[in-house]
Amino acid sequence: MTYTDATIPEIDQAMHQAAQDFYYYKNLSPAVRRQFMHAIASGLEANIEDLVATAMEETHLGYDRLKGEVARTCWQLRSYADAAFAGRHLDIRIDTALPDRKPAPRPDIRKMMVPLGPVVVFGSSNFPFAYSTAGGDTACALAAGCPVIVKAHPAHAETSEKVAKIISEAASANGLPKGVFAHIHGADFDIGGALVSHPLVKAVGFTGSTSGGKALFDLAAQRKEPIPVFSEMGSTNPVFLLPGKLKTSAKEVAKWYSGSITLSVGQFCTNPGLLLGVASAELTEFATELSKLMAQLPSAPMLHPGIAKAYAQKREAALSQKGVETLAVGVLPVNSDGSAAPVGGSGVAAEGIPTLAKTSGANFLANPLLHQEVFGPYSLLIECADLGEVKEVAAHLEGQLTSTLIATEADMLDHADLVALVQEHCGRIIFNGVPTGVEVVASMQHGGPYPATTDSRFTSVGEDGIRRFVRPVAFQNYPNALLPEALKNENAGGYWRLVNGEWSNKAI
Amino acid sequence: MTYTDATIPEIDQAMHQAAQDFYYYKNLSPAVRRQFMHAIASGLEANIEDLVATAMEETHLGYDRLKGEVARTCWQLRSYADAAFAGRHLDIRIDTALPDRKPAPRPDIRKMMVPLGPVVVFGSSNFPFAYSTAGGDTACALAAGCPVIVKAHPAHAETSEKVAKIISEAASANGLPKGVFAHIHGADFDIGGALVSHPLVKAVGFTGSTSGGKALFDLAAQRKEPIPVFSEMGSTNPVFLLPGKLKTSAKEVAKWYSGSITLSVGQFCTNPGLLLGVASAELTEFATELSKLMAQLPSAPMLHPGIAKAYAQKREAALSQKGVETLAVGVLPVNSDGSAAPVGGSGVAAEGIPTLAKTSGANFLANPLLHQEVFGPYSLLIECADLGEVKEVAAHLEGQLTSTLIATEADMLDHADLVALVQEHCGRIIFNGVPTGVEVVASMQHGGPYPATTDSRFTSVGEDGIRRFVRPVAFQNYPNALLPEALKNENAGGYWRLVNGEWSNKAI
Q1: Which of A58, A140, A146, A232 is catalytic?
Q2: Which residue, among A309, A370, A377, has the nearest Cα to A343 in the 3D structure?
Q3: CATH classification of B8-233+457-472 is 3.40.605.10, yes or no?
């Protein structure tokens, strides 16, 4: 099914509706807001088979993966709704009056977070549910109290349309006005630009390419009123293989990574794209084992022809660089008659070929092209001359969503300066594991120094993602009866509040 | 005394020193960091008479005001240091492992805030202590664990130099390396640009003009790695005079405002520059009383010739607009022989003349020049035809640091839509008070929608200002012994942490 791009007047109308209904939604009782978000989750569950079937057709992702993704999406909606209901994002601070203070009395001041206003969310291509129409950004913005305008990803527009219908039905069933949620189709890049540039928009959530995310960030910074843009643009997620751990566990680690590199055809923003170690018998053992495993893994269709073409081009460009050796190539696709099928490129057969390449530390340092993400089931092993060179590479890496340390505790202590450097360049640091698999928990940080994301101070996964869409307002000397519920003496919601410097969930 | 501008190589060297010593300062024990900041406060107190004398000469501000400002600066340093020691800015989240979870175990994940890196702070002209060298931005960044590079405000360079010496001595007395603090002179605007553009800088704090703050914001957004800029650029701080309250208290409110408009020669970013009410006998009573009071107040020297000149020009431009009536002018300056002294302009006698003007709501709406801040002891009374026009003006105002409601509780309920609109445009909302006088407490919000500040999600006053200079990092499956102290099971610091969804200050 194809959808027509929204027109500029349609976008303008959606924005005005959102801005108008913002006041209603902002002041909605937290219980009804939670109920609305739970209703979206129930709606997704009630339609899961149809949604998954549609997404399978549009994205080539598998049944189990997509079913799991819907479950994750529902968990996000419900857990963020519950976190907001508990008021954890409100950051309430109360300092009561000191009428006898000299030289002047201290007024009563009470502060809490309030929603920013209408938020534009761009559906991502690699998570048709969890980071699209009813995904993490939408769930965070709705939990914060912001109306949402979603731009459907054109590669799964029908899935998006079906999810949008479920959201609208949940809104209507809970008596919410129309402007709380809008769904816009826009294959043309200008539609995205028009959305971000609209004066009534107050924030933007985006998951996708560096060029796309950066373009939106630039547009937003150049507005008359600049607004925050949370672009999650991916990274190469370096994995540091330290000598002690590799000595005992090279084969085991290789097994973890053959799975992690090729999971969902490598189409995760946390895909491990760089593996770094010191030239040694252990590193060779690791490389040999990983090559063996990856060579046995099948090629598989990628999300859409654009992504497949980009993978084919970037993979080819990387493999053809001076000093880059191809260590392993997965099983190539075949036609039903057994002949070799065409690969990648012009959208003929959108295949992601598992690929492991290798280069030296010196070569990597000298060639900026090798620092770029190759989005797909690809990883580059960087064989360094010594740990000094590993450190040098670490110092030259750009900001990352994740970094991983494959290490013994002794390795960590022996190379504390490397560990410190690695932490400086990422948002999440994993000890003896893989970066793929992003838990949706309060402790998750999914976001990192630029260019992993445009704002390292926030996360796009976990309930703290709600904080992207709020700002503080202080009320000075307000009569108790006129304060927002969360700031009243009674504290009927039982919120945790910092009252005169002490935490309390009691009344004042 | 005059100081030479720093050279580009000197700036580069300071940045490298800061970036290098960042690791030391970041990992410093919280107790030593607190001790360092307390030592700065003690150093300021030990030198208070000399500091105040120097600042009096450089800024024309009075002895009591400046002495009070040093006390405030010391309170900021100590209270932010104590807040950071208590770990309130760390936002610790811990989700412990669920090894038996199906289909896959859940890893242990622990998240906390870590400092961003070197921060550039621009000294402000109107607060030579509290928002300059050892002021709020510096205190927040140091509390966060970030090295600070201060650019002295050229209008009080000697005060800045003396404060910088106290900071460096406190650093040295606490064994801190040189790069924790640097002090740069730079009268030339290019010095500011070079600081913000330097690749090793991670964030910027600025208090000053809209043009200056916006220029730094734009520079930072255009960097290869964009960084956050917290520019606090001031606002007109509208005061809404609602009918019920004005009926009973017109004279009392006029008295509050004659003081607030002229406090420190009107040189506060929270100065009430717009007073809005509905044409009525009460409003006329208020205007008459306020005019009478302001006409008795003396003109006084402003901070420096540049500010005096800007005030003279903007005041003149506003007063000469069509439909603007001058209601009151304060007592003009006289020479020692009693003759009229020259006023404003070319730095001859930098005098700020208390001024009250008046216009209609329609005229205000039609003339954008009247929306601009006139930085000084000036306010514009907007006489609206009815409350509908007050609302229209409110809807057309730009983002504000503060808004004030002069109202009875009945007024607030009767005009709930106006109150809602007013809240949407500001960071702090005051009930029956004045916006000047910004308490340094956790509940303070000093920051508002653009163009009041460049980022409404943060405050530059109160301990939450520390959050401007941190970002979250998650540690996945880390051995307890290798975690940062704040995330260890033991919780030796007794921090409040969200552990598996529940708040706790205990060990795990």
Answers
A1: A232
A2: A309
A3: yes
Question: Given this model, what pLDDT does residue A350 score?
Answer: 61
State the catalytic residue, choosing from A140, A146, A269, A426: A269
Interatomic CA distance for residues B107 and B43, integer angstroms: 48
Beta-carbon contacts of residue B13 (< 8 Å; ≥ 6 apart): none
Q: Confirm or reject CATH 3.40.605.10 for domain A8-233+458-472+481-487, answering yes or no.
A: yes
Residue contact B472–A447, C-beta within 8 A = yes
Q: Which residue has the tokens 């971000």?
A: A196
Distance from CA of B157 to the nearest CA of A (A): 30
C-alpha closest to that of B359 among B279, B422, B289, B292: B279
The pLDDT of A7-13, averaged and rounded, is: 97
Position of tokens 């033991």? B490
Surface of B (280-319) touching A: CB under 8 A: none
Active-site residue A269, yes or no? yes
Q: Do B472 and A93 touch (CB under 8 A)?
A: no
Is the Cβ of A455 closer than 8 Å to some Cβ of chain B? Answer: yes
A502 catalytically annotated: no
Q: Is the peptide bond before B103 cis (omega within 30 degrees of 0)?
A: yes
**What angle (nearest 5°) sits at the alpha carbon of residue A399, between those of residues B148 and A377?**
170
CB A8 within 8 A of CB A16: no
CB contacts under 8 A, B 37-96 vs A, are 88, 91, 93-95
User: Rounded to whole angstroms, how far apart are CA atoms A409 and B52?
Assistant: 54
Give pLDDT, residue B128.
97
Q: Which CATH number fits domain A238-431: 3.40.190.10, 3.40.309.10, 1.10.1650.10, 3.40.50.410?
A: 3.40.309.10
pTM: 0.96
Complex ipTM more than 0.90, yes or no: yes
User: What are B148-158's pLDDT values in tens digits?
Assistant: 999 999 999 99
Residue B348, pLDDT > 80, answer no
- pLDDT classification of A230: cutoffs 50, 70, 90: very high
Instruction: From chain B, pick out residues whose CB is under 8 angstroms from the CB of A496.
Output: 503
